[in-house]
């Protein structure tokens, strides 16, 4: 235990499954030993189906009934056959002339029923003491002898075969397959998982061992139909092959709780009010006999421990690995979120950047604009270096023009003012081509901004803006006009 504390920390405490008064007992569908608590009643005329498969019926009976049927069958058969031999001797008059040396009876030395019974036993068991035997002058005795041989062979084959099959059943092999008394819920590889442990006590392996899990829970369909003890499959690695076990040492079986799991909405709080049963089925071929063995157990909601993990049972010794089965059922507490996977995903989606709460002062159009700018920047990063450089130079020209104009009149910084300037500025034929190019760049930049931010309402330009607009082209530096002219040409 000290090694476990050093490995996992002092805050973890080893515990076992809940016992005593804290567990509320209720009717199980499958017991812990694998027995199914289901009884069939009111069969009516269907009971005759058991006789149609008499051999399987006898094998399925309990041992006390098998032994009783075995003894009764042989006893009745012996008594009936002995009575038939005694009847032949009585009808022929052999009983009254048994000591007459001149008389030839059907069966020599048969004087009464005990002697007839001994003759049958000697014949059936092929003992043949030589004192009692059939003579050739008794055809009915010969026929009865043939019938006795055939009947004895059938009874022997049926009863001995039934006993052999029952003794060779691998049900007792399942007694050496262990399941943990409780299942645990904790995180593994960052995912919430339902886990339990299985082990094999024998050195002989289980060939092709496979494990399956069923969730037994009553539910009601959206149409109003009530389904009692509805069965749902729990994925324990069917798609990845994790359900195929190499059961040499104890293994921890894991069911990942995700959106496809029936426990998607299960939390630590809802676990206390749920009612379900998890049935575990382990199948495999017994290596020594080659027969299929199946072991079963179940876990109710009271036997599922939230926030626990199994203690390690493997240790490396001198030249071999040692399994400590005294810690097979022991668990220890680990930090585990008490929320369901559904609640965790909802909280994660709310905390994502796209779903963060936005300032009330920002409009919906501004939010869309910011997202568009992010997308455009991402697309530009994919261009070659030379194209990125050219694009940056072309985009920097309108930005410098706007920065220069804003130093003279701050009202012209808005997109609406730029549009208004473009609309009302008269451009004469005699103006320099550089000025037209500069205004054209302002127009292109204004249209691009208008497309990304939406249609903005144009404000009325005050009269004092006309003079400022006429002098706008004079504010651009000569170097900027030359660079812009060279790029556009």
What are the defining features of this structure?
single chain, 489 residues, alpha+beta, 14 helices, 39% helix, 18% strand, elongated, disordered N terminus
Write the layout of secondary structure elements.
Blueprint: H1 2-8, E1 14-15, H2 48-52, H3 54-60, H4 63-92, H5 113-124, H6 139-167, E2 177-179, E3 183-188, E4 191-200, E5 206-220, E6 226-234, E7 244-245, E8 251-256, H7 268-271, E9 277-286, E10 292-300, E11 304-306, E12 308-310, E13 314-316, E14 321-323, E15 331-333, H8 341-350, H9 364-380, H10 385-408, H11 415-424, H12 433-453, H13 465-470, H14 478-488
Parallel strand pairs: 3-11
Antiparallel strand pairs: 1-15, 2-4, 3-4, 4-8, 5-6, 5-7, 5-9, 9-10, 12-15, 13-14
The percent range for strand residues is 15-25%
User: What percent of residues adopt helix (DSSP H or I)?
Assistant: 25-40%
Q: SS-based structural class?
A: alpha+beta
Number of distinct helices: 14
How far apart lie the N and C ends?
82 Å
The whole-number mean of residue pLDDT values reads: 75
* Helix/strand order, N-terminal first: HEHHHHHEEEEEEEHEEEEEEEHHHHHHH
* Most strands sheet: 5 strands, mixed
Radius of gyration: 47 Å
Q: How many β-strands, per DSSP? A: 15
| pLDDT < 50 runs, ≥5 residues | 1-22, 356-380, 404-433, 448-473
